[in-house]
Amino acid sequence: MPSVADVAAHNSRSSCWVIVSGKAYDVTEFLDEHPGGARSILRFAGRDATAEYEPLHPPGTIESLPKDKHLGPVDDLTLEPEPTATTSEIQTSTSPLIMTTSAPVILPLSACMSLEDLAQVAAIKLSPRAAAYYHSGAETRYSRDRNRRDWSRIGLRPRVLINVGPTPRMRTNVMGFDSSLPIFISPAAHARFGHPDGELCLARTAARMDIAQCVSTYASMTAPDIAAEFFNDPHKRGGAMFFQLYIPRVKKDAEKLIAVAKKAGYQALVVTVDAPVIGKRDDDDQFQALAAAADGGDSENKGKEDTEETLPPLPSQEPGTLRAAHNATFEWSDLPWIRHCWGPEHPILLKGIQTAEDALLATQQIGPDGKRLVDGIYLSNHGGHQLDYAPTSVQTLLDIRRRAPQVFDQLPVYVDGGVLRGTDVIKALCLGARAVGLGRGFLYALSAYGTAGALRAVQILSDEIQTTLRLLGVADVAQLDERYLDLSEFGIERAKL
Ligand code: HEM
Ligand SMILES: Cc1cc2nc3c(=O)[nH]c(=O)nc-3n(C[C@H](O)[C@H](O)[C@H](O)COP(=O)(O)O)c2cc1C
User: Where is this region: Disordered (predicted)?
Assistant: First the structure.
């Protein structure tokens, strides 16, 4: 049984032991294989890494190391774990607060009237590390910010004196599954950064509010545990469970992920195609660098000034890290392989389509059985996390409408990016989307108030969608179209009456 002192003696790249949940592991050989990069582990060489490791990795992750690397329980864990920079008040150069308030008051849930309110509570509650991760955007953050802005550049044109009845119809079909609302939960990694129940909060919300949840490959809980929470929820009214797949570098790993998702009962596969490499998010990278510096640098360079020799590589230059962990060779011709692994019964969506050209190509992918390989396209720029200056979903919707309008007749189109209001959802539907996903909206809601926060977010959106429909004079979301929009800010004028 190793002692804390034994572990502390293995504090370098040449011999690196860490403690996680009271047990010691030899991670020396694993360092260069770690998708989060060697440096993120080296910071904890010879120390307790639980606080950093735990919210990021699903249970069972470190247990998958070869058995001979399990060194057993640490016998004198009476020592207080060292505080690490994870919990300190590190702020990146852009201080990524979600929203600034002159007086940071935590609104009670009952007083949260919008998703912005929930985001404001989250901004106060989230650790700086989590705020950096959730709020970050690629490079100049242009795409992230434009996502939100573009919805506000579209005006609404209400028709009056129309009897829409007391409750306009909001139900729709999302990937073959009935949904109480034209919204769904976009896949987002690391929900346990925001709340200890992480993705389970969202699974309960999907089940109880009868909407779909798309679970990330990098969820902080296992895909089977999240699905079990959804399917066994005692208050379940409906909903659906989709699995989001990043194609890993090793094809066999993709096959394993798909097999696990199928076995767990996931009902649609959402293949993310905009991430052959992870985007350059300065806030995130800077946070990690500041945290390492606050800890005194990695064990080999502790206390030393940054010099040409000691300067750590940029995250993308570390071998095998997250930036390079995805399969950069995946292409259209691989879709039959994905369909083969996933099987014919359940739908496949491509997430991250950003041009009319690719939307059209998606409709043209035909399998050996003569059927379409893809059942829907999902327009997204990944919340501005991937390619900076990539188009917003509004721009891509307009691009498809102008250059390949037949796409809308051939495949259902889903969108996300910058959506926080019922009016945003309505605008997307008017432009031809079937349903709209929210990423940060749900991350902030669960970070603010766990399951109750996420449930509240759906209630708010439902209320806003319903109010908007009534004020527009529309009785059913299926009746929405471009006539209800003012697109003059995009240079699109209406024909004469
Ligand atoms: C015990 C010490 C460990 C620490 C401190 C640690 C830390 C981290 C950090 C900070 C990231 C996020 C990197 C980013 O988002 O930029 C990460 C990602 C990752 N780690 Fe670890 N890790 C540890 C062990 C492991 C082990 C043992 C495995 C697998 C056997 C693993 C698998 C992964 C994977 C797959 C990711 C990428 C997906 C994700 O972002 O969740 N990690 N890790
Ligand atoms: C913190 C965070 C994590 C994300 N993780 C994933 C992921 O694991 N897989 C994925 O396909 N998309 C991921 N996305 C992108 C979302 O699915 C979605 O496209 C985006 O959040 C929509 O923009 P919004 O956050 O403005 O709603 C993530 C986005 C954020 C903000």
Answer: 293-321
